[in-house]
Structures are given as C-alpha cells and as structure tokens.
C-alpha cells in the first residue's frame, strides 16, 4: 500500500462512486477497482459496501478513511515543506464556490506572485459551501470562499463560529437571470418572477445556488419552473443556457467577456429580496496575515472592476 493508492481510496469515498473517481483521477475503472481490492485484501477489511447507487463506507472503512485523511494531510505537508530541494517555496491552497470573478482574481494574484516568488505552488479547488468550510476547518485549504443567500447568513456564520473560523464579507450583490440573447424574455429590461415559470431552468447540481429560490417560489408564490436541468460545472451551465431553447439560470453578475462569448444577457427580476453574499474564510494559524491581505486586496479590486463594467 502506497500513498497514491490511499489517495485513490479517499477520492472514491469523496465521490461515492468508483466510476466518477476514476474520471477525476484520470485512471481506468478496472485499475482503480484492482487497487481498491488490493488494499482491502492487504488490510483484511471491506472499506466500502457496494450498492446500486455507488459505494458507502463500512464502519471499518470509516475508521480507515479517518486515518487515511490524516496521513495524506501529513504527507502533503512534508511534500510542500521539502519541495524543490529545500528551496523556499510560497504555497497557498484555496477552496471556493464556483464563480467566474474568483478564478479571474486568483489568476491576477498568481501573476502578481510570479513576479515576487521564484517557487510558487497554488492549489485551487471548487466545491460546495459545506466542503469549503470542512477543507478550511481540517487544514486542507488555507483560505476558503463561500457563497450563500442572505437569509442563510445566521446559519453559515454559526457554522463558522462553532469551528473557530474567521470570515470577512467580500461581495454582496443581487441575483439576476441569465439567458440567451434570443430568449423570448430577453427584450424585457426587468422581469417578473411569474414570467419564468413556463421556461426551463438550469440549476447547479449541488442545489445551493438556488436553494433560496426554491423556498421563495414554494412558500410565497406556489410557483416553480416545471422543467429543470441540473448541472455541476459552470461551463456546462453556460453551454446549456446558450443552446437549450428558452432556458435560463439564476446567477450573479457575469463578466461582460463571458456574456459576449456565449451570447448571453442578464436581467433583474422584481420582488426578489434575497441577495448573494460571498465570504472569505480562514483560520488564523493556517495562513499568514500578509498573504491573506494580498489575496483579499486582489479580490476586492477584481470585484470593483466587475461592478464598474455593469
């Protein structure tokens, strides 16, 4: 059993699927299954229980996964500490919700750091709010960025406070509807929520981006789009909106360059009181104040640039 095989097992556990894990790891499914069986035989336990929906960790498997996570974390720490033949290396691990302005900001930050650092290692992962918080809490990410609807502020701040995670609000904006330029509603400057019911909604597959909207539509209007497409990747969401006739998605301000690339437009909607909040989160002992300040400044400037283009 080696560290790579352990990482294989952790990815299977994270995705709950051998096939999905093999895609993420860029290895064949038979190769991944063979490595899993080899480790299970070596340990004399069943790490996972196979079901028609995927795999679930057994009780023994849960104990193994907990130890494996700790081992991989220690290994990564050693790898980064002694990388490049003990030459000094600036490293940063970021975990964040999907957002086009964030990737733009991180790109600017990397360009800035490349001018200052001979050796630079940046790890950037996109995942759900819960995963971002967990990554920051267990040290797998130095910095996290979460996004949620304003009515869930108390919930998320409680989650952060209970884990001794610090936060700062970096962005607050209204939700808008994203649609193709030839959409039947595109000629309206402002939409009513009822206008959207007959059209197909494209939703992020983790549900969190549109959680507020589901509650809004069901509890206040009793209405919701009857046709929905759930996707996970932002690029897939944009492709669907651009190509599925009459589709739309709830989102925040999109960079004009992206709108032009996909031939999309944004429209505000009446009677939507909820706003989108972005928090940068961190633990004081996991990231230096200087590095955090530099990253925060780049994000702030990127947001200012985006708002000036609206």
From TrEMBL:
Coiled coil: none annotated. Residues 1-58 form the HTH lysR-type domain. Pfam families: HTH_1. PROSITE patterns: HTH_LYSR. GO terms for cellular component: protein-DNA complex. One of its GO terms (molecular function) is DNA binding. Keywords: DNA-binding, Transcription, Transcription regulation. Belongs to the LysR transcriptional regulatory family. This is DNA-binding transcriptional regulator, LysR family.
């Amino acid at each position: 059993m080696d560290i790579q095989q352990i990482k294989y097992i952790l990815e299977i556990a994270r995705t709950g699927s051998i096939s999905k894990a093999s895609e993420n790891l860029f290895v064949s499914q038979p190769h991944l299954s063979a490595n899993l069986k080899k480790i299970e035989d070596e340990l004399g336990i069943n790490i996972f229980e196979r079901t028609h929906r995927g795999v679930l960790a057994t009780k023994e498997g849960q104990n193994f996964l907990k130890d494996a996570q700790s081992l991989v974390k220690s290994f990564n720490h050693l790898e980064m500490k002694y990388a490049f033949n003990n030459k000094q290396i600036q490293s940063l691990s970021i975990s964040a919700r999907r957002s086009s302005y964030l990737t733009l900001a991180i790109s600017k930050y990397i360009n800035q750091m490349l001018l200052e650092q001979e050796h630079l290692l940046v790890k950037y992962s996109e995942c759900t709010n819960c995963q971002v918080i967990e990554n920051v809490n267990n040290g797998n990410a130095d910095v996290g960025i979460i996004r949620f609807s304003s009515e869930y502020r108390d919930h998320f701040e409680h989650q952060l406070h209970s884990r001794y995670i610090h936060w700062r609000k970096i962005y607050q904006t209204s939700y808008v509807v994203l649609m193709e330029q030839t959409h039947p509603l595109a000629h309206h400057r402002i939409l009513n929520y009822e206008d959207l019911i007959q059209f197909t909604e494209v939703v992020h597959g983790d549900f969190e981006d549109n959680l507020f909207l589901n509650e809004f539509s069901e509890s206040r209007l009793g209405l919701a789009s009857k046709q929905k497409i759930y996707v996970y990747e932002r690029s897939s969401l944009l492709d669907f909106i651009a190509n599925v006739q009459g589709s739309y998605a709830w989102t925040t301000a999109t960079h004009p360059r992206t709108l032009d690339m996909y031939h999309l437009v944004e429209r505000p909607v009446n009677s939507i009181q909820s706003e989108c909040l972005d928090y940068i989160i961190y633990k004081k002992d996991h990231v230096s104040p200087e590095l955090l300040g530099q990253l925060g400044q780049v994000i702030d400037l990127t947001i200012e640039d985006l708002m000036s283009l609206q």
